[in-house]
Amino acid sequence: MSRFLRVAAIATVLLVTAFVPATGWAQLTRGTISGTIKDNTGALLPGVTIIITNNATGVVRTVVTDASGFYRAPALEPGTHTVKAELQGFKALENREVPVIPNSEATINFSLDVG
After folding, report:
1. Containing H/E element for 8?
2. pTM of the model
3. Cα–Cα distance measured from residue 108 to residue 52, given in angstroms and rounded to the nearest whole number
4. Minimal CA–CA distance to 83: which of 38, 29, 34?
């Protein structure tokens, strides 16, 4: 291997290694909100739009429930958030006081009524 390729390989390894601790630290300083959405009969609801708003900053994250009615929003800033669930044909629900704690997961489930 030529000297240039060896130096390039070492530089690449050092560069990649330098970013690993920063990524790990970010995961420890953020939290997750997840849950399951059902209707009032207990049936799982896919396609529900979940709107998560950081109450202090106004930053909004939107996710959609999967085929099993499950949603997950990782890497949220710590603080109190509002979680709102919306699906056409159902009454929207929200929880305005959801704490996001670093390196933890809050579970917020909703049961939507037809409306």
Report:
1. helix 3-28
2. 0.76
3. 11
4. 34
